[in-house]
Amino acid sequence: MGRIGPPHGGTLPSRSRNGIILGAILPANESLASFNAHTRIEHAAFLRFVPFPNIVVNWTERAKAHLFLEECRENGAMAALTLETMGGLNNYTAKHVEYLADFLNKWNDTVPIFIRYNHEMNGSWYPWGQQPDLYIAKFNEFARIMKNRTSHVAMVWTPNLEWGFPWPEGPYYNASIDQDGDIVDDAFWQFLPDQDLVDWVGMSVYYWGCEEPDGVCAPGYNTLPKTRMFRDAVLTFYANVTQRLNKPMMISETAALFNTDRLGASEAAIKTAWMRQVYGWSQDHHLIRAIFWFNQHKFEKEINGEVDWRLDGNDDVVLSYRQIVGDDQQFIKSSIRSPMAAELGVTHRLRTVSSDRREGPD
């Protein structure tokens, strides 16, 4: 295929105020209200992983989504749905997308919604991964239906960061995607849908706790993140994709590992250092408009053990979080019904969110 390169540049309205939407990803059994109460911060958005088309064909999954969206409404929060087609990209029809759009329209006037469609599509670990032509066609079809049938839904494109591309060890590895040796072309551009159908872009960045006895990161250790580690992870995508598309960007998942079975640096020291990097660097880069902290304690096969990713499981971590983001006016914590949210254009159409924050140094 040769060099792909960026498509024509897009533009965004510049009418919005400064701000980064403050979000979180909670386990299903933790209420949004209790999380807000514990952190003493009214978060502006929450993210949930949703199987598709199960959400429209399975009553249980539909009920779960309904409860989540109602909880967002009750807490004055936006909703982000990470849609996953575990049956593959051909496991649903356009009719399923129409059903979903009609379902989401129940919250047309109350809950702005992000749809993060089949994330990390450039990776080799999901059934929708490393199929650029099919992925683009299905994203475009999905987005067109959403835009035709809804006015409160924004489509989000979130590839995996390029480190390790093309990940030949994965079950869905496709050797043909490693085309011309240009990492930006191969890892990102060839997976980009029609840019007019992409409202936001994004990326997930975790700190896995590295020790490097052989110069290679071995995850699972309670160590402090290196200086500028978050910046180094995000910069290639931000500079070569986000800025060239001129799209708002979300950090769709982030957190710092604390291994409950190991000694080392304290949980508060690790997570405070990571929060300072994530929220600090993002403030200086005006297209980053939302950050979602992965607030869960779970088993991770990568280290064959339990990881506490939470920011509300330790009082010292909660205090650090409040100190970093709680009083800073650049972080949007207000309800979607607030004047700030209205100026951001999120009450009816997340697609228009932009920023006039000045770009800081790398």
TrEMBL record:
<dbReference type="InterPro" id="IPR022790">
    <property type="entry name" value="GH26_dom"/>
</dbReference>
<dbReference type="GO" id="GO:0016985">
    <property type="term" value="F:mannan endo-1,4-beta-mannosidase activity"/>
</dbReference>
<keyword id="KW-0378">Hydrolase</keyword>
<protein>
    <recommendedName>
        <fullName>GH26 domain-containing protein</fullName>
    </recommendedName>
</protein>
<dbReference type="GO" id="GO:0006080">
    <property type="term" value="P:substituted mannan metabolic process"/>
</dbReference>
<feature type="domain" description="GH26">
    <location>
        <begin position="1"/>
        <end position="322"/>
    </location>
</feature>
<dbReference type="InterPro" id="IPR017853">
    <property type="entry name" value="GH"/>
</dbReference>
<comment type="similarity">
    <text>Belongs to the glycosyl hydrolase 26 family.</text>
</comment>
<dbReference type="Pfam" id="PF02156">
    <property type="entry name" value="Glyco_hydro_26"/>
</dbReference>
<keyword id="KW-0326">Glycosidase</keyword>
<dbReference type="InterPro" id="IPR000805">
    <property type="entry name" value="Glyco_hydro_26"/>
</dbReference>
